[in-house]
Amino acid sequence: MPLPVPVLPEGPEGVDPAWLPDEAFRPIGSRRTLIRGWGPLARTAHQNVAEACARFGGRVERDASPGPFDLVLELTPGEDSSEAFTYERGHGRTTVTSSGQRGLLYGLFHVVRLGEAAFREERPRETHRPALALRMLDHWDNVAVHPVMGQVERGYAGGSLFWEEGRARWDLDRVLAYGRLLAACGINAVAVNNVNVHETEARLLTDRIDEVADVAQVLRQYGIRTHLSVTFAAPMVLGGLAGADPLDDRVREWWAETTAQVYQAVPDFGGYVVKADSEGQPGPFTYGRSHADGANMLAAALAPHVGTVHWRAFVYDHRQDWRDRTTDRARAAYDHFLPLDGEFAPNAVLQVKHGPMDFQVREPVSPLISAMSHTRLAVELQATQEYTGQQQHVCWLGPMWSEVLRFGSEEGLPLEELVAVSNVGDDPFWTGHPLAQANLYTFGRLAWQPQADPAGILDEWIGLTFPSAPQRLIDGLHSVLDGSWRTYEKYTAPLGVGFMVQPGHHYGPSVDGYEYSPWGTYHFADRDGIGVDRSVASGTGYAGQYAKPWAEVYESPETCPDELLLFFHHVPYGHVLKSGKTVIQHIYDTHFEGVAEVEEAVEVWASLAGLVEPGRHARVAERYEEQLRSAREWRDQINSYFFRKSGVPDAQGRLIY
Ligand code: GCV
Description:
alpha/beta; Chitobiase, domain 2; TIM Barrel; Alpha-d-glucuronidase, C-terminal Domain; 3 domains; eight-stranded parallel β-barrel; about 15% strand; globular; binds 4-O-methyl-alpha-D-glucopyranuronic acid
């Protein structure tokens, strides 16, 4: 029985279509498509094609309709949960097949990405499948507006997409549009609330689970499973128990019953995300239990429902004294978790930040990731630009993430899952800075294929977001985005030292902002030199947490890569880098260069006026003004600080205040 041609719910007014403008669907919408097979996501695929056809004059048919067809999307017998699809073009027809609902939808978006080429270029059958099973976004969204952090912790794109006026949004059209964008870059899971779980948000687990169900019901239409951040203390704060000891039977029963109720409300619920014994959040240490005990208790509650617990490894001492040179925050995750390797339940995933500190512009890859060979791992990236310009600055993170994912060996990191902290809010451009959308898209595509060339993904994003753009626009967009991470690195903290930011909000320079704080974030600059000695021979021993050859490479200033030198070593300002420059001259040069690169990008952007839709152009131009101001401030503060400390003048005699 053919379905009536449905029309997608009206898109939310005034919202940027990001990488799915109507125009991206023209090649499909102006042709004849056949969809074979039934199911919820086949229906979603049908809706998308039908909407495009209504706009561009093509037709979409179901099942047994007579041909000919330009495009056939077909569900084949087999594994229903498959995300893989085949693609081929021959005899005047493009065919996508999958045995899975998600696979079919991903196949459709593959055709959208190819555009006209999907109907012109002959292609033998090829199979596409994601390298990583879980590709998840964590939203640090609060339901209630937090007095210090606002609604979205470290959010730079307005309020929450999910929560409004203290509850789940009544109108979830925007969430549906979000689900569509995410599916189009391959993301299949979303955690809908902050890992710092406050009082109101704790209740999403129990008496407010229906609100989570509302959101899940919408995301499900695009193959996205919903996860929830929960507080380890939930049995006390919600269940009235005296404690939350993970080995106490009453506590375990409470979690088992509560979890069963969650699945009543959300049958395809993905599982829990937990930040425990970290930055003041409750955890198993209170009861003398280990992180494995804590994670396994939740894993046991989730196992009957095939759910997963994501247990975060971001555990460190945040009450340190800067005089204490033996405690090193960079060591903490490895020291805490390596002894537990092999102790985690099969449905417990350890979620590890990509670097050992906290999403700085440059960090080495966390040694824990390669070390936990008997534990399921997810690597956590940060799309929200907490330390990389807060979506005021253009900082496309594709190259950084790609370096992380390719670290160590030909195959890259041993991973099953990739997570990023979302950079999206209720801003009309989704990410505040319209060009920050490229980070979200790149994350999804890298999670699908971690070995992909990030510059190719960037071009894909440009092609989708600006279909039929003239070459000048394509080149301009590519040039302002492609090198922007390195530009940002140049004008901010040098050579792998981090945290030279304003305390609290983390925007803008403050060289000593975190230098005497309890957070374990020091650069130890004095009149003679700068950097943290993390060698085994004379420092904290962190370099020894790596396997060979990295332990040796990082151990000595002679072999340590320049860009991480100050992360691993304390050296004099006159130390000569592999580049041939001294550390102090490198600091001056990169800071002048970084600002010059921003000035150039500002000009490129100005030259694109008229080629970009005016609202979007104006938003980016306004952000560039702030980026330039801020980059100059960074340059001057960093240069003056180190000129004063070292007493060494700039070899080129440029203006240093
Ligand atoms: C959600 C950093 C951020 C915090 C964040 C924390 C984490 O410390 O500044 O806002 O809390 O990381 O990842 O848990």
